[in-house]
């Protein structure tokens, strides 16, 4: 087998590992929106890896659906709502979490199967991810305001790399990359970076919020 095949498998395995580890960490923080969305990425990437290793067609169909879920709704809507816990103190109930995922699953089913979505689908993905990128820019600004310049830079790198992947996904092929192996390597690494950086960025704003609350309590006590 060619070296590119092994590099691709390694990049997919990296995404499986990072999304699993940090998905579980988010669940430990009781952020179920981010935790379960990261685990959706884990399951999608795992099936993608099975497809490449063994040509399992059913695994490809699972990965295709979950990829559409994450690109269309999971990251732009569910992950954004999860991140808003530290930017807007948004903490939905368990029922709301369930409804988020149920609505996203139903919407994804329409997105991938409805004939009328065939042509606008790629543009929809880009539009949704662009909205997420706008929120990431705001998230980076909040980190910078909290004195977390390095993490703010990390979020900006996530913004640029993931937006680039989202933009070229359905519209552009890298010259010489006929089988899109290089593209998928870059996509998996970009999403792996997102899984890692957003966990630590979330934690930084979470600590900043707690410190601010403690300072306010001390001043009120005086």
TrEMBL record:
Q: Which UniProt keywords apply?
A: Membrane, Plasmid, Transmembrane, Transmembrane helix
The protein's name in its UniProt record:
Membrane protein
Q: Does the keyword Membrane apply?
A: yes
- TM region positions: 6-24, 36-56, 68-86, 98-117, 123-141, 150-169, 181-202
């Amino acid at each position: 087998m060619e070296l590119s095949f092994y590099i691709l498998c390694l990049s997919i395995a990296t995404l499986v590992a990072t999304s699993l580890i940090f998905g579980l960490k988010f669940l430990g923080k009781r952020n179920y929106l981010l935790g379960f969305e990261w685990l959706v990425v884990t399951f999608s990437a795992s099936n993608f890896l099975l497809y490449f290793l063994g040509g399992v067609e059913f695994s490809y169909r699972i990965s295709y659906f979950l990829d559409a879920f994450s690109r269309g709704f999971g990251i732009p809507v569910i992950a954004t709502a999860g991140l808003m816990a530290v930017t807007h103190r948004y903490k939905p109930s368990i029922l709301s979490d369930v409804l988020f995922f149920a609505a996203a699953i139903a919407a994804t089913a329409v997105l991938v199967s409805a004939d009328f979505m065939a042509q606008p689908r790629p543009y929809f993905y880009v539009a949704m991810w662009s909205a997420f990128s706008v929120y990431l820019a705001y998230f980076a600004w909040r980190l910078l305001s909290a004195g977390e310049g390095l993490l703010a830079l990390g979020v900006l790198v996530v913004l640029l790399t993931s937006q680039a992947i989202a933009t070229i996904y359905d519209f552009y092929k890298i010259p010489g990359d006929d089988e899109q192996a290089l593209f998928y390597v870059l996509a998996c690494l970009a999403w792996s970076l997102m899984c890692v950086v957003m966990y630590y960025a979330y934690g930084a704003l979470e600590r900043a919020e707690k410190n601010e609350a403690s300072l306010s309590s001390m001043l009120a006590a005086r």
